[in-house]
Amino acid sequence: MKRRNFIKNASLTGVGIAVGSTLTSCAENTSRDSKATAIVKASLPLVISTWDVKNATAKAWEVIQTGGNALDAVEQGCMIEEANEKGQSVGKGGLPDRDGNVTLDACIMNKHGDCGSVVYLQNITHAVSVARKVMEDTPHVMLAGKGAEQFAISKGFQPEELLTEASKEEWKKWKVKAKYKPIINIENHDTIGMLAIDKNGDISGACTTSGLAYKLAGRVGDSPIIGSGLFVDNEVGAAVATGLGEEVVKTVGSFLIVELMRQGKSPQEACEEAIGRIVSKPNSNYKNFQVGYIAVNKQGETGYYSIHKGFSMTKFQDAKNENIQSEHYI
Ligand code: ASP
Q1: Which of 50, 103, 125, 191 is catalytic?
Q2: Helices 54-65 and 70-83, axial angle in degrees (round to 10)
Q3: Ligand 1 center to residue 314 CA distance, Å?
Q4: How far apart are CA 274 and CA 253, in angstroms?
Q5: Is the CB of 4 under 6 A from ligand 1?
Q6: Were both Cys, which of 60, 265, 289, 314 would link to 49 (CB 3.0–4.6 Å)?
Q7: pLDDT, tens digit, for every residue of 249-294?
């Protein structure tokens, strides 16, 4: 996975040319692409994820292919990445905050618009599953910190050390070089966000992250904030974000994308407009940070857009699976 250095590698030249989905068969939906008048045909079911996460997306696809629903698919897909210690941005092995604590944020949404989320969760690998329990077993939407951890343990989740030796070593090296002050987005970050449409045509989504590496202790990003990091409306579509969460929160990006699709925009057009809202702010510092979105509408058309080069979307649809480099603003 080449996800971790995307800010550093971001090209500052060239304007991306957006092309829409090039899908085949089935649902016979058509729509206008944002920068080309392509006829788009989409097919269902499908799973899309932020970044190059083939194993995770394949798991979700398998769940759907064997008759599972979209909610089970996105949860089980995200769990693959949470358990992958080598991916140092999600679940076990995630890079810690400046004080060496690994703290996880995650959320999930189902076809009814129900949602659950966990914030600043420690010592539990499968944050996405705890978020699902919050949604299904409590009258609440969000649980944070110790309360979230205690809730998870009460539901049978096993506490474990999330800071792996490899992540600890990287943190120690960072501490030697870094000035201990709250400058955001000088370090790496990533999130797995996943959206699925099952064989019944129902949509669910999830996202899970350890947030910005070396963040200030207590910092929470967009990923557990419903409407910012993720939004699902089963009548319209869904969107999920990755990148500098502060900028996503300020523009309520995922909700914005779904509302734009409701008003008739394609997923591609909606993602582009959400990025546009960020970069067009008078004081926007967008050359120095990354945000990326992926989206899908009810018909199975997909879109993706980021500020910088380097972001990608993994897609399983029809008999095909692919990792596609995202279109980008600069
Ligand atoms: N959006 C996440 C956050 O800000 C991090 C990421 O996607 O890399 O916490």
Answers
A1: 191
A2: 150
A3: 18
A4: 6
A5: no
A6: 314
A7: 999 999 999 999 999 999 999 999 999 999 999 999 999 899 999 9
